[in-house]
Amino acid sequence: MKKMKLVMIGNGMAGVRTLEELLKHAPDLYDITVFGAEPHGNYNRILLSPVLAGEMTLPEIMLNDLDWYGDNGIRLHAGKKVTTIDRVHRRIIADDGTEAEYDRLLIATGSTPFIPPIPGKDLAGVLAYRDIADTEAMIDAATHYKHAVVIGAGLLGLEAANGLMLRGMDVTVVHLADWIMERQLDRAAADMLQASLEAKGMKFLLSKQTEALVEGEGGRVGAVRFKDGAEIPADLVVVAAGIRPNYALAESAGIYCGEGRVRGIQVSDTMQTVTDPRIYAVGECVAHRGIAYGLVAPLFEQGKVCANHLANFGIGRYEGSVTSTKLKVTGIDVFSAGDFTGGADTEEIVLHDRQGGVYKRIVIRNNRIVGSVLYGDTADGSWYFQLMKDGQDIGAIRDHLMFGQNHLGDAGHKGEHKAVAMPDSAEVCGCNGVCKGTIVKAIQEKGLFTLDDVKKHTKAASSCGSCTGLVEQILASTIGGAYQAVSVHDKAVCACTELSHGDVRKAIRDHRLLTIPDAMDMMAWKTPNGCATCRPALNYYLISTWPHEAQDDPQSRFVNERAHANIQKDGTYSVVPQMLGGLTTPAELRRIADVAEKYNVPTVKVTGGQRIDLLGIKKDDLPKVWKDLGMPTGHAYGKSIRTVKTCVGAEHCRFGTQRSMAMGVDLERMLFGMWSPHKVKLAVSGCPRNCAESGIKDVGVIGVDSGWELYVAGNGGIKTEVAQFLCKVATREEVLEYSAAFLQLYREEGYYLERTVHYVHRVGLEHVKKRVVEDAATRRALYERLLYAVQDYKDPWAERYAADAAPALRAPFETLEA
Amino acid sequence: MTMNAMTLRKTDTDIAADAGWKTICALDDIPVLGARVVASKSGDIAIFRTADDEVFAMHDKCPHKNGPLSQGIVHGRQVTCPLHGWKIQLDSGEAVAPDVGCTKPFEVKLVDGQVLLKA
């Protein structure tokens, strides 16, 4: 089949990213030609500032060098500006007469700097700051001249000023507004930033309107004159007064580019121009639903959607982005999102440490975050942003909101929150031993832009995830500007689909999907049989939504849930027999001891959940060990019920008010066989002394004289989280019903690998209380659904060691001979 | 009867055995999207079966930290190691980028529904 012809106009970050995505999906579909006005490959425009500042060199910021185009069979016309799009003959013409025909055209012409119409703007020595040529001209000017004036104190202006200052120039920043970066910062944060820049030697003239650029010697600019008559010397003027979508070429071809304030190539959610279905557009030249984006993350999202449609997959829509700004201005982290100015109907929480260089302001309306500004320490920016996007009620966490998501015992990286202040040798990811320097190097050398990329390449934040905020902050400060956090809740499950966990759950419920192949088929999975991320999630969603009907697929479960034991680093397994409530008997202990000796078990350990763990057992021995133990599985290996820990309670303890051991045994027996989005741990204490540590459990029960207090969504793991009080009940039956109802709600609404604490953070405790505490009928129904789901669950160990066990159950434990 | 005629009467499996191939098990003994472990003189070998009933064999050791690949989740022509999530290409034993490493592959084939291994 003859390949279709794809021509791309513009050779910048958004366009080339689109091609990269397209080549991943459909490497052989198109014959691709690219026209770029600049005589280079694709480079990281965001890193021009470090180049100007002398911190990086041009080769270091190349994302796709010329070889990349050749290797991928792409014809690149670098340095040729396209002047005509001939839609009738489906061809384009460049300024040197080069022509190219297309079946599909992708316009990615980016943006152009806005130069206000002031007299003298065409003098030599007056520059915009947009591309490599501008940067080189500024570097050149810095070696010959003394006085630089930067007009505009936005991000770009400040970075230009900083670079020129580092190159030895005397720099004055002129700004029309009352404070710098007024689009991103409130006055307090801006004042701090200004003070820190002034301390380095930068000068500012605020609320100043430029009247003219005055000609000096030899036709070059010599001074800047203001409306108030003042004049300052200037051998170099950098105009950084904003950017505008570059749509002139598209408009000249009759492609609709909007009117009034919303100018830019008008595209639909598939990134097709509204005028011509053969023509797509992505990047800064585009206006999507009335918004032209200038940050890299939304543009990459556009590219992803566009590539999907160019590849004829036809799924995925770009529905716009809620943007936040997380960036580094001359080495200082700042973050802002939403309505950070506030108004008469808003309240605010402010932390202001002028000496320490930290400022945080959260704007709240009706107990919901509507905006925030962070200066100096931005590690929690994405958390605030998420809370804002989700419209979550922050009433319950208001008192520690300001101290961030991690302020409670965030283990593993010593409470480091300020990426900038960290030395390169500081360990960021305690799980995988990754230092800041390693992350920075990977980001720069491999051209990484997203958190996922950084996780993949460095393994940082890829295990327990507690350093995610810090890694994001390092990413933001390394790529200079415009890193944007993506919402974790709308994020696709994995690369096999565009759908989020919520979408997948809903589809499985709405369409009564019962098998993984059916689910993948219905939801148009992109891979033939998924991956190790989505398959376990799908399997869980199927069996939890349609218990006893959906087909449980062992091959889509993690090894531990297939082997019903916990894999260890050397490939052996650990075995934990059931001991309801942590209670055992002399006979059981004797059998455990015998097994340990018979199979030469190297380690016998009491676990944190009050069980006995036999470690170092070979897979082939597992069924024999289980048989000899003669005890059911202790569920120590699954995304499932784990343990119910108990204290001694009123049975023996002189302080005990309730019979906690019996309660624990009843709870654990009820939950036997319960699979869940993540592991679930319970505890029952017999009095408020709480010896079973009920305060850090998914469900914690504390006996008091008049009954039982129930706590939910605690966590003793990565981030210690204190469980929240759910309600108080009087009887044993109520404890069972309320606990089960809460867990069933979590089972039905939680996302795979989301602990109860994160689930409750996401939906809010009110949501849980409404269904579990306030509405008796809903609670009852949830309780019954849980009982139904675990009904008739057979001990998986006994099923496998039974003499008449099916070969399919036995085979995984048998080694073949060669 | 000549030697030639005798050889002709041999089944395909016999001929394979002559060339150093060994019959290990029936294809159906390996779960779809799963693996079995074969003990051999060169150590444990994992034999994988894909959704399309292709079979692949390699050392049952991840190039990262020796994780038992046979216990991983099989998807497409890859397996994800159960220990730290490295992805290994079933046809070559190579780790999927950005990870770098290689596990030794072995020749394996299907004859009459039987899995034959050359180890």
TrEMBL record, chain A:
Nitrite/sulphite reductase 4Fe-4S domain location: 638-776
Entries under SUPFAM superfamilies matching the protein: FAD/NAD(P)-binding domain (SSF51905), Nitrite and sulphite reductase 4Fe-4S domain-like (SSF56014), Nitrite/Sulfite reductase N-terminal domain-like (SSF55124)
Entries under InterPro entries matching the protein: BFD-like_2Fe2S-bd_dom, BFD-like_2Fe2S-bd_dom_sf, FAD/NAD-bd_sf, FAD/NAD-binding_dom, FAD/NAD-linked_Rdtase_dimer_sf, NasD-like, NiRdtase/SiRdtase_haem-b_fer, Nit/Sulf_reduc_fer-like_dom_sf
Cofactor needs: siroheme; [2Fe-2S] cluster; [4Fe-4S] cluster; FAD
Keywords carried by this UniProt record: 2Fe-2S, 4Fe-4S, FAD, Flavoprotein, Heme, Iron, Iron-sulfur, Metal-binding, Nitrate assimilation, Oxidoreductase
Domain NADH-rubredoxin oxidoreductase C-terminal as annotated: residue spans: 324-391
Matches recorded under PANTHER family: NITRITE REDUCTASE (NADH) LARGE SUBUNIT
The protein, known as: Nitrite reductase large subunit
Species of provenance: Aromatoleum anaerobium
